[in-house]
Amino acid sequence: MTSDLRHAAAARETETAPHLAAVPARTAANAAGEHGIVRNPGMALDFGFLESMRNVNRSALERRVATLTKRRSIKADNQAAWLLRAIACMDLTTLNSNDTDERVRRLCAKALNPLRRDIAEGLGLGDAVIRPAAVCVYHPFVATAAEALQGSGVHVAAVSTAFPHGLTPLSTRLQEIEASVKDGADEIDVVIARGLVFGAKWQELYDEIVAMRAACGQAHLKVILGTGDLATLRNVMLASMVAMMAGADFIKTSTGKESVNATLPVGLVMVRAIRAYFEYTGHLIGFKPAGGISTAKASLDWLVLMKEELGRPWLEPELFRFGASSLLTDIERQLEHHLTGRYSANHRHAMA
Ligand SMILES: O=C[C@H](O)COP(=O)(O)O
Q1: Name one GO molecular function term (predicted).
Q2: Which end of the chain has the lower number of beta carbons within 10 A, N or C?
């Protein structure tokens, strides 16, 4: 364990719940790494640890979520700052069957200038650069996005393993990852084959993710669980843990294509898995809720959940992302409302 992580663990032990709030911002910031966070090296698949995970109590989770979202008291002045943070933690996404290079270029242009000039000026942003953390695209558009975003610091994320179902031979999925990395992807969002969860084939799931992590090389690995397909919250907890043990840098809820996408109770299960993994290993894993998050209000609920359950470091793009195709539109509208007291039509905040 590095001294930074030892420091984080020591800080954790001195605090009361939610004790990860004690982890200092950018805990591992001194360690080398493109994101300023020590990458999760993974660990051997530990069946004993998996078995020790308690059953998930859905009604307790729902009560906790209700408390969190009701207790939230982000006042109007703070709200604009939180919404800017939501932009900074966003993977601005297009994953449509009718995507084109031109559409991806327009989305990248939006990522480079996410707020209309009058809104940015009205907020007094000056030289501050507020941009999404990444643009997320299908593999065929990685090179286009990489070229459009070159030098900007906005990453290219690719969904590269037979998204959204993950149902091609592993060798094909690994080749797709390698091709995306070669084309310039900084981050790879992979989907798991959900059948491995239903069959409790944890070893096979673990081995697949280990292979995917190896195929990523320096690119960061986000593992999409497809939680809406996983049937039980215990499956969500166990799949989260297996993904982290196999070396995931982030765990992500959904593809956006399941009938149920990111929900706060499922998110709570996953962030508690992240907490348990941290307590066990000292490694910090990112979280990405994705799918159906389209309103500024929803983004605030998620940010509150992260702050209350895991603490300040999980309000940084190194450890938290929204996967969202239309959230930026609503955030921009709300920021305009904050400045003018009026709402404008969505088309005034075009994405791509
Ligand atoms: O990973 C991101 C999701 O596919 C985006 O879903 P969304 O279009 O519902 O925002």
Answers
A1: deoxyribose-phosphate aldolase activity
A2: N
Rounded Cα gap, residues 86 and 297, in angstroms: 11
Enumerate residues lining ligand 1, CB below 6 A. 93, 95, 136, 255-256, 290-293, 323-326
Confidence class of residue 76 from pLDDT cuts 50, 70 and 90? low
Write down the catalytic residue from 189, 229, 249, 330.
Answer: 189
The structure tokens listed for 119 are 């809104």
**pTM score:** 0.89
Check if CATH label 2.10.109.10 holds for domain 45-339: no
Q: 305 with 267: CB under 8 angstroms?
A: yes
Reported as a single tens digit per residue, the pLDDT across 185-204 is: 999 999 999 999 999 999 99
- Using DSSP's 3-state secondary structure scheme, residue 91 falls into strand
> Positive or negative CA dihedral for 170, 174, 175, 179?
positive
